[in-house]
Amino acid sequence: MATRIPFGPQHPALKEPINFMCEVSDEKVLSVRPRLGYIHRGVEKLAENRTYNQNLYLIERICGICAFAHVTCFSQAVEEILNIEIPSRAKYIRTILAEMERIQNHFLWLGDVGHEMGFNTLFMYSWRDRELVLQLIENISGKRVNYAMNTIGGVRRDITSMIMPSLKEGLNHLEERAKYYTEMCTKDPTVLRRTVGVGMLSPSDALELCAVGPTIRASGIPRDVRADDPYAAYEEIPFKVITYDGRDVASRLMVRLDEVLESISIIRYALDNLPNGDVRVRVPRRVPKGEAVSLVEAPRGEDLHYVRADGTEKPVRVKVRAPTLANIPTLCKMLIGENIADIPVVIAGIDPCIACAERLVFVDTATRKRWMWNKQELRKYATKWYRKK
Amino acid sequence: MAMERELLKSLAKKPATLCYPSEKATPVEGIRAKVAWDIEKCIGCGLCPQICPSKAIELTGKGSEAEITYYLDRCLFCGECVDVCPTKTIKTTSEFELAFTSRTEATIHYKRSKPSSNRKEKGC
Amino acid sequence: MVPQEIVTLLQVFLFPGFLFLFCLAFFSDWMDRKLVAKFQNRYGPLYTGPKGILQPVADFFKLLAKEDIIPIAADKTVFSVVPMLVLALSMTPLFLIPMIDYSALIWFEGDLIVIMFITTLVIVAMFMGAWASTNRFSTIGGMRVGLQMLGYEIPMTIAMIGPAISSKSLSVSGIVQSQAVGIWYVITQPLGFAVALICLLAHLQRVPFDVPEAESEIVAGWLVEFSGKKLALLKLSKNFELVLAGSLLVSLFLGGPLGFWLPHPSVYFFLKLIVCIFILSNLRALFARFRIDQVLEGAWKYLTPLALLQIILVVI
User: Fold this and answer.
1) A181 within some domain
2) How distant is the Cα of C39 from the closest Cα of chain A, in angstroms?
């Protein structure tokens, strides 16, 4: 007997609305159908009506957690169109903040996955320790979540020598905590029981379904934009791409915890080798005609931004492909054959950020009909719309 | 089981959270929070409303007559206006408790006082 | 001289009867929440009463005042009866437990069996409630309630039989009295104590055994459709269950209200109860949730053999 269980859009395990219609038999999942479209905000369209500088703050708010990755990605794309090189000190500061963001995201994720498996103590502890890195970020940028640090042509604030000691001290503490969690997660029997062998994703599936970020790295494939297509200062900083072969949630846990340690060493290196100089170059308000694609390794995986400019103050098109969208097909694959009890853990395993990945679904409220447009239909509509304009 | 020691340790520790209304976090140096105008210094150049990403600033009047309306509920606290101001009229304060019960409370008018040069800040 | 009937009436309604039990239930809930909060390095209840001690009471009354919704598809009679049934069933065994004296308010030979029977009935009532609410999540929760019971009920019963065999009495009061002359059974039967502790944790549906109401998996499990007054009663009965679990451990293994220098036996009972709640809270903060198959596997693979081993040791 197969029953259909709606997982979301309103569900305590989901922090954001997405719907997974799971067909289950006994406690096993037979098939999954995801449905997006609950919190589409039209960011891409909004971006067309703002200047590049104003867009920075809009793009930053695509995601609350990987805000810096998105805004770095966007500014890189615009800088590419402008054809300017940002000062190397700015590059280093971008790297430092990006890695701090990775640390805070991974701590947040650890707490979240702990909560999904009913381990609220882990949730409380890891969020408490996340506060440390948020304070470091606040020390640098003056804000905790959306840092407002990036700007086209560099960063807006410098890391002064005054805050350097407190940063290093904070990093030591963070390292200690990350090591503690690594040890805890490898030893605690209940955590192991809930994660080992859960949400399996084979390397071939991961490649075929285009998984990104820690999800693909936990299947043993070293794919990381920081190493494959270095941006900011990653070219000059030595670091390892963490991979694990377990293919399950436990490996994703370990990948993330090891990445925290790796991030700490990246930040240390960057702080020690911070070049002198300016942190930003002034850029013209008008961006010349052109287009650019920019890639950034967000904490959740590869983030892609496409910007097209037409010589005015505003972009013609901004396209965002957030990492979660790339991971949703793999998620559906992973869920098949799992227990109902494991659905939240597996979903949390890819670290979903639904609002980033949101896509549009048309709903006719009168007839309750839902449909989506494919590429051709969308193109037809777009041509018509622009002609009319 | 791996957490038992940490659990017992936190029994003796002070809770990590703050008892909010009675105990408040101290804002860090250089926090980006609510901004304030020293309206007498304003020359009405119009750069701040132009750069503001969320249209939280409205300028009325021209030159030395200019007055500012600051919609706190729209503000992103990015501090672009502070950076752009040529006369350093705009300053970041460390006020971070910005919850309001109505929209009008969150609208701040900066008006020039005619005779004296004292700044007047008044909710409408 | 006050007539015996009035004394008994006062005992039933005030001390150690209903009023006392209500206070105890709210207190143990507060203590549990406060302890778990402390373990998790946060404050816990804080504002209602000194140190938030009145928070459970406030929560109870708040829930009483809330809208009470009965789903259209639900079996209305069963759905409405279940909360009261669960509350009554979880309160009843407490009268059989000696709290202020060496013998309970009501006691008879075989009341241990009655307690076990009633704890099982509570589960059945929960299952009925889950089934009557006809929600998809509560159906799964109800199934899990039943499955989990199949796992822990047997080892729990066996573990509780240990003290009964040692004291040659099937009454909780009898077991307490035999510990007065002998030694506490936690020393002679540590395995039984451990098994009973884990099984009671499962009976209470607390982490790591909160499978039936796993919040992040099946929303609130069997509780999902209950609201308002019904939820208040169910939450209250959970607190009674917590008191019951603590006081069963105290009476069967820790010598009940036995003491030497404190003025009143109930003080002793109270202290031991606090120790038990401390242990239960500590375990709650320590683990992640098991999966239902893991619960059953663990119960049958480890708990039942251990409980049997304890019985064998006791008999020898």
Assistant:
1) yes
2) 8
